[in-house]
Amino acid sequence: MKKNVLVVVLLLMLSSLAHAGDVKIRFGILPVLDTLPLQVAVNDGLFKEHGLDVELIRFSSALERDMAMQAGELDGYFGDIVATCMLINKNVPMYIALTSWRTTPGFPLFGIAKSPARSEWKLPELQGAKLGLSKSTIMEYLADRINEKKGVPLDYFSQIEIKKLPIRLQMLMTDQIDMAILPEPLLSLAKLKGGGIFATAEDLDRPLTVLCLHRKYFNDGAEPYVNFVTAYKEAVTRLARHPEEYRQLMAQTCRIPQPLIDKFPIYPYPMPTLPTSAELDDVQAWMKERGLLQEMIPHELILSPIIP
């Protein structure tokens, strides 16, 4: 009996020593759909298999996450491409490691919902409608790009600043505003509760959210970065092959409302790539127009120097 106990203790010690040299990454996230591959990589031990100790630190708001990254409390960062450029412009030492989501036909991560009272209204009737959104964010960027795609001027709708998503959704469903730009799964929830869908971002063909890593992980051969991307690829592959195995994980970590849990689609997450130069220029040009940037940031300060 004593011999068996000793063997168990030795195995535990060896396991502990094996992971003692793991590279620690404190990764700031939001509880949203485009972080599911990260959740799979942690849940299935994929980062551990590649010598990384990745801790996903969940924030309730983008503001809190950004403040933590600026304060040096995080080593990695999930965020939209607009917020990412703003942080890099403030000299936060990080690179975009990979694109976590880009617009994909059939899978509308963002869209503009109509209130129940306006659910049947068409474009001409909606001129001047009150559109709830958060300004200086990816949502305002998408609202502008949707307007362009619809062939209407940027001031066609009356934009109303409503930063908090639960309040924005509540105001929409009680007809206090006419329209709101919402992420999934709130977009589907609005439709389920009697709202309409005006437009989605699924056909815009551009990156929306990214994963970033501190620049220290790109030094001396960039082994931590390479291992991070390798583990992430494995997570994306598992999700593609066996999506239903991760439905409960998605429900728990991505805030899927109870009425949608059984049927909400598990998205086809893209394999790691970087935004193109043209895509970066488009976002930065919009940011300059909105007064969020004074000058364009050189691409080499934004993008990983290594292609994932």
From TrEMBL:
Sections of the chain in a coiled coil: none
Gene3D superfamilies: Periplasmic binding protein-like II
SUPFAM superfamilies per UniProt: Periplasmic binding protein-like II
Major location (coarse): periplasm
A Pfam family this chain is assigned to: NMT1_2
Record's keyword terms, sorted: Lipoprotein, Signal
Signal peptide annotation: 1-20
One term under GO cellular component: periplasmic space
UniProt subcellular location: Periplasm
Family: Belongs to the bacterial solute-binding protein SsuA/TauA family.
Protein name (record): NLPA lipoprotein
UniProt organism field: Pseudodesulfovibrio piezophilus (strain DSM 21447 / JCM 15486 / C1TLV30) (Desulfovibrio piezophilus)
